[in-house]
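*** Residues and shapes ***
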Amino acid sequence: IADGVPADRVALVAEAAVDLPPGHYEVRAISDDGVRVWMDDERIIDRWTPHESAIDTARITGGRRRFKVAYYEIGGFAELRFEILRR
């Protein structure tokens, strides 16, 4: 965590556009506390409750995609990973 950013009681929103070649993909969010993921303004992952480390997935197809990830950390262990895997 960067200097000046608290380790607990923190939230973030990140956005990105990605060009995925044609095919099938799995979006994976690994989180400890709350996470939501949108693709092209449609919510595809929603675990917006405090929880221990968990994996959530959604199946998508290739193309130009816009992603938004929202995350919060209440306290204790913190984890957030966002992956796009070709299937």
Notes: The radius of gyration is 14 Å.
